Amino acid sequence: MKDQNADDSPSERAWRALEEGEAARALDVLRRAERAGEAPPEAGVIAALSHLELGAFDEVDRELARARRELPPDDGDLLYAEAEWALCNWRLEDAEANYRRLFEGDPEFARAAERLALVCDLLDRPEEADRWQRLASELEPDHVPPPHHLSTADFEAVVAEAAGELPPEFQRALERFPVLIDAVPRRELASQAPWDTPGDVLGLFVGYSDLDRPVEGGGGPPAAIYLFQRNLERATFDGDELAEEIRVTLYHELGHALGFDEHGVDEMGLG
């Protein structure tokens, strides 16, 4: 990503908005720059990443095509956007190749190392994943957790403790949904809707919720709550933070199992 303090050009304002989590504002900056005839060469990259953040997936390919026309194929920002789009589509080998090219071009780029840790986990190479995660943490120790892992039994105990802290009515509801622990999401979970199953997701509810279950049977996968241990570990710095993230993720996915959207989950106190 660009140095957000370098200047106040349209490019820098758009990057700054995107890095502050305001993708819609980034797109607005680009639109105004284009109307003024000041669109930067990397506008396609910024727009593609903004649309990716907003879930406007139909726009990403179009903007990446524009970026490929405007930028050399080894441009770092373009490589990053291509890698993120490949990861979103579960083209893991393509994502890995682009993140590796990024890191080879800039061995101080912690984000590339961190994403390689995720991709290696998704490709079932956990030892290599830990090496990349350790390297990313060494490069940015204040922002990237080092690898740390609970045993399966200890992780299950933390999940059980979190479930036991639920109010009684939610404990009873949770009994209807098996809680499945996996290291990371698998391709088969993402096969029907890859964009809805990010590789770095911490938890996931799969199947019919209480509000959309057919009256008489119906197809679809059995309802279940998934917790992804290595993603949860990668998102936290220590055991206490991990336990809290497990609790938050379990409650959040239970809210979805009961049929509530993101806003409803938060209102129920399960966010």
Task: Give a verbal description of the structure.
The chain is mostly helical and 271 residues long. It has 2 domains: 10-139, Alpha Horseshoe (Serine Threonine Protein Phosphatase 5, Tetratricopeptide repeat); 152-267, Zincin-like. The protein has 14 helices and 3 strands. The protein has helices at residues 10-19, 23-35, 43-54, 57-70, 76-88, 92-105, 110-122, 126-139, 152-164, 168-174, 187-190, 229-234, 239-257, 262-267, and strands at 179-182, 203-206, 224-228. Strands 1-3-2 form a 3-stranded mixed beta sheet.
Give the helix tally. Answer: 14
Shape: globular
Helices and strands, in order, run as HHHHHHHHHHEHEEHHH
Largest sheet: 3 strands, mixed
Task: Put the structure in a nutshell.
With 271 residues, the protein is mainly α.
Q: What are its keywords?
A:
271 residues; mainly alpha; Serine Threonine Protein Phosphatase 5, Tetratricopeptide repeat; Zincin-like; 2 domains; three-stranded mixed beta sheet; 3 strands; 5% strand; disordered N terminus
Topology summary:
Blueprint: H1 10-19, H2 23-35, H3 43-54, H4 57-70, H5 76-88, H6 92-105, H7 110-122, H8 126-139, H9 152-164, H10 168-174, E1 179-182, H11 187-190, E2 203-206, E3 224-228, H12 229-234, H13 239-257, H14 262-267
Parallel strand pairs: 1-3
Antiparallel strand pairs: 2-3
